[in-house]
Predict the structure.
Amino acid sequence: MENSTRTTQVLVVDDEQDLRDGAERILTRLGCDVFKASRGDEGLDIIKKENEIAIVLLDMKMPGMDGMEVLRRIKDMDKEILVIVITGYATLETAIEAMKIGAYDFISKPYEPEQLRIVVRRAREKLELKREAEQIEEKRRKTLLDLDAEKSRIHTIIESLPNGVVVTNPEGRVMLMNPSFRLHLGIDKSIGTGKHIDTYISDKALCNLIVEISQGRHVDFNDIPTYELLLPNNKYLMARGRPVLGDKRECLGAVVNFMDISAMKTLEQLKSEFVAKVSHELRSPLSTIHEQLALVLKEFVGVKSEDDQHMLSRAKEKTRGLISLIGDLLDLSRIESGIVVQEPKQVSLADLLKDIVDFLGTRAENKRQSLTLEAPDDPIPIIKADPIALESIFGNLIANAVNYTQDGGAIRVKIEYTGINIRVLVIDNGFGIEERHLDKIFDRFYRVKNDKTRYITGTGLGLPIVKGLVDSMGGFIDVESTFGKGTVFTVIIPVKN
Ligand code: ADP
């Protein structure tokens, strides 16, 4: 049996009954559907009626309509039908003429069954190939249609996004920008795409960043900084760029997204102002209460019961806590609004650290901790910085190390000069911080709550203040920690001449 997925309909047109029947037997065994006609016009009627005849075996010499005429009419009706003409022995001319009109193949009479099988198989293979080619073409057309639909969908999404989107090529030329990008950056309609990014954005640093991303110099997505762009009228945009990578991970350019964060910025500023105002208003009455409590407490000694005294000292302690919280809040809002009134002086960081270590030494001793300062033999250069800010930075870090280290632990403060910067490390072998908290501890009010830290009081404002101050000095702070083993805070302070 032939292995064909579809049965082929074959029409045999021959005036000799034996040949018709013989052909039918052979072709049926090949798996074809066979129709028979003894005359040309009869054959044409069958083709019209059946509509699915794919191959015609056509005898050229028949009474009535001549074979050549039948062939012509078949071709007029349907060019796709494959006609195999049956010619008499040694009538090659007829075969050639028939091929000229469009016959597909020929076979001469008398033929062996195998000869018939060969020509019909060949015709069927041709049909099969044609069908496959049509299917492939159909698939291709569908894929193109799908792609078109997808393209148009993506186009609509990009066009209607409230965020500005710009796409660059590896040279930093703009290949695409959406209406929001034009609107946010005030780009005139007459300026089309195709120009370098600095035609559209005047901020040099942002343009450099976009070019770097477009050239594939930032392959690690996490390493790409976001950029806050300040435009006239206090409008803030946050720009975030990503490289577009090809299948071989080559960089094809960048996509940069611009989000309007002006409202968020205003809100943040209002919040900061509000906190500063409330804190300011609270500070003096609280200080008065604190002082008065201290006075009353003094008068109580020896007069009132221990219980009463205890109650009052707790109230005094709590007020002191509140005053220090307010102090932290005020510091923080000053740092955040950029009005840290730093008064730079010549400072020896080594001496300053020694004073802090001495001062906090008592606290460490109470917990039987060792608190040591390690300085190199070579002198550390004097820097120009605000000593109060430096005290706040290292006071907070060392106090934290003492607070978050168990009794009997060890805290080391190390100072080094790298030739360019001064590096201070505050190392403890205390509780440590779990990885998941590490990037949050510099957020305002963030405190890690676990069995060890639960009873330690604090505001969660120390580290944000430290970070704000280090940033304002052009320095850098980093933390490394292993939960249960200890923590290292590293601060880098630039040495400016
Ligand atoms: P506070 O100490 O007032 O809670 P901070 O902003 O100074 O606020 O610190 C935030 C959190 O970071 C702390 O609550 C603490 O859980 C964690 N932390 C800070 N320093 C250390 C340290 N040296 N070891 C372990 N945890 C620390």
